[in-house]
Amino acid sequence: MMNKAFKKTTFSLMSIMLAASVLFGCQSNNVTEEQQNDATTGATTANVVAGTYTGTAAGFGGDVVATVEVDDEGTILSIDVDASGETPTIGGAAAPKLAASIVEHQSLAVDTISGATGTSNSVLTAVEDALGQAGFDVELMKNRKVTKTGVDEEVTVELVVVGAGGSGTAAALAAAEAGTDVLIIEMTNSVGGNSMLASGMFAVESTLQKEEGLNLTVDEAVSQLLEFNQYLSNGPLTRAIVEKSASTVDWLESYGMEFYLPSTTTQAAHEDNLYKWKAYHKFVDSQAGFENFYTHLEEMGAEVRTNTSLNEILQAEDGTVTGITATKEDGGILTVNADAVIIATGGYGANTEKVYENLHTDLVYSLGVANFGEGIDAAIEAGGIPWDSSTALLHAAQLANSSTGAQGHSEDLLTQVLMAPLLWVDASGTRIGNEDAIYDTVFWSNVAYSAGGRYYIIVDEATLEDFSNGANIKLSDAGPGYTAGTGDFVAMAAAAVEAGSAFKGSTLEELAASTGMKVEELEETVARYNTMVQNKKDTDYGKSADSLVYEVSEGNYYAFEARAVYLGTVGGVKVNEKLEVIDLDYNAIPGLYVVGSSAGGYYSNGSYPPYEGLACGFAYTSGRIAGENAAQYIQNK
To answer: Are strands 557-574 and 599-600 parallel, antiparallel or unpaired?
Structure first.
């Protein structure tokens, strides 16, 4: 049972989240004794002028603004952060927490908030801007030592779940309902992860589908998924997930998540395959669902610790798992003795060096909750083998240097240009594929990736003028969709050119020079494309006649840069259909389970399958299966 010294944490999701703009204050004596003895303190603050200063930095969904109050002794009195453009439960919650840490430690050398590194860096940059205006030596502030003095702890439970996203939460629910004593640790400051940002999950033969008279079957879904993956994925695992998907929807509903089936799809390319969109069980309110999940977990006696990061998996001499160690927010080490461990830490999307190495390009953007792969690394260290671990979840594309919201949406009207099947070329000026891929989120990003992750949308001024009056072409709602409305697209293009995210030339030769393309390649591409538009027949890649609307024939000419986007990574270590970690001889490591984006075998080292809600469905269902099997394993010990 849980060590009584382990203080229970309230599970209300709203108590875990922080407000996006909170004022944190301190008295002038908040500088620690260590900082008072710091030889750099005087140099850092010698030229400070008391007052209130405002700094700004580009954030995930717009500017992050820090209002900083300082006194004439060089003490930071308060920091008010406006991060309203960030994801509320991630960056929005992290921003004020980081501000409080800066005030507490009187330093810019504080740790960033796990899971919100991008927003954390924006806050640090904005505060640095404000402190520079106040007269601080910001370089010294960035090197002022911060020491953590947390107390080490040791607790004992039956099961520890590492990660509180969809897969970890489902695992905890399944184990707790079986009577298992469960502890959940989460490295970020809130629960939910990418699953709370997702719109829904994949399932077949569900109650909702039967109520609509749909005849989607497990057999056909399994067949389609395996065939798309060219039979490189794990057949027994795939079948186990799909077979349990429908009951998992009902099961999640019993814990407070509401679902509905969409009446249409935002991805026009999916309209002729019901499995690609009618298996998509959309969440009515995922945040409310998570609140309900954790209310039930509290009632079942489970406990949670946020801001706690996994260090290693503990094992006996024979390899049996005996628990974990983790680092707490205060720097202390938490040792958890447990009969079983479920790793649900997601992929390694925040480890950009590894992502770029596996993708062989750094010309991509990321969205969603970024994880560092610590769970995958720990499972491999414990004897697991890497499997399908080089697959990035490529999903849509984004205009270069554009500001986006929580799920990649931008309010920029130029997203209409992004979401139209216009002429796409690579860095040499050569057309890269069928632009109708824009109607499928996955295929669209795959085409972008085929060009190294970066491509250019080529239009002339006449096309932009037509867009100003309402585009005469079908725009795609795939991915984040587009912002509807009319406006002066020529003026917006000029602003994009000024910002460096688009390029302009009065001739194709000038456009090639400004982008670095090969002029002969670009001129030949445009001439060939214009002929196909005139003939309404794409003789290169088979784009539909309805999409062959706009020639590129009248200067000025524009090239809009776009980048492929990834939502983290999928695949990690090899597991069986029980989600047990196994070796190549299919021997399980006793007591170790890996779920969600940390598990390998459901995908393949290639493209993410274009079935809506697939990753989230795998997260919830794999977590549930692992939780049930871990509970049974513990009961049988």
So the answer is: parallel
